[in-house]
Design brief:
Layout (H helix, E strand, L loop, with lengths): L5 H8 L5 H12 L7 H14 L3 E5 L5 H9 L3 E6 L2 H13 L6 E5 L14 E6 L6 H8 L3 E9 L15 H18 L4 E6 L5 E6 L1
Parallel strand pairs: 1-2, 1-4, 2-3, 4-5
Antiparallel strand pairs: 5-7, 6-7
Helix pairs in contact: 3-4
């Protein structure tokens, strides 16, 4: 297999980043902040350009990388949820630096403790990229506000190859077990058509019937 550089890969993926976004990517690498892989981002870019969502909900903001990119790649208004105070502060800084504060709205709270913060809003698209063990709960909780024919995109569906690996850690086995149950939940859900793609760390696309 021929090895290619990150720059060459991003040319093939048609991904271009301005200087500030590059600093976000560097920050994530330096501080071990998990952000969407480039192949997954290219998939996300294609999805928002194809479906043209007007309002997106993201579960798992971290430093605001994917929410910023979805905003840059579309005309959508993005609502994103983050519970970690350090990540929240960094995301606020990044969103402001990119001039996206009127398009990207960050909610500082645990997603499963959201009550009335999203009242009156419905969404064309939901992007789930947070605690893997809670994916099913996130899906069930927030798709009540998903429009008909709306879409749900879930990242990390292959979980760094752990799904098929021998795992000695009890906690990791439990987490992988929950993610496998989420796979089954999506693929057998009669209200959604779901496909799982071997892109990045695995991306699922679920379309509401």
């Amino acid at each position: 297999m021929v090895e290619i550089s990150d720059e060459e890969r991003n040319v093939l993926l048609n991904l271009k980043f301005d200087d500030y976004v590059e600093t976000m990517r560097d920050y994530a690498k330096e501080h071990n902040v998990p952000i969407i892989q480039d192949e997954g981002l290219a998939f996300l870019k294609a999805i928002v350009k194809l479906y043209k969502p007007k309002r997106i909900l993201e579960i798992g903001c971290a430093i605001g990388y994917s929410s910023s990119m979805m905003s840059i790649y579309s005309d959508a208004e993005v609502y994103t949820i983050e519970r970690d105070p350090i990540m929240y502060e960094q995301a606020c800084k990044n969103i402001k630096a990119l001039g996206l504060e009127n398009k990207v709205h960050i909610i500082f709270k645990d997603a499963l403790e959201i009550t009335n913060e999203l009242d009156g809003l419905d969404f064309d698209m939901i992007f789930i990229d947070a605690a893997k063990g809670q994916y099913t709960k996130f899906f069930q909780k927030f798709t009540t506000q998903l429009k008909d024919k709306g879409i749900v995109v879930t990242d990390n569906m292959l979980f760094h190859g752990f799904l098929d690996a021998e795992i000695h850690s009890r906690n990791l086995r439990q987490l992988v077990g929950k993610l496998k149950k989420y796979h089954e939940f999506l693929l057998t859900n009669p209200d959604y058509d779901t496909s799982i793609y071997n892109l990045g760390d695995g991306m699922a696309l679920s379309i509401k019937k």
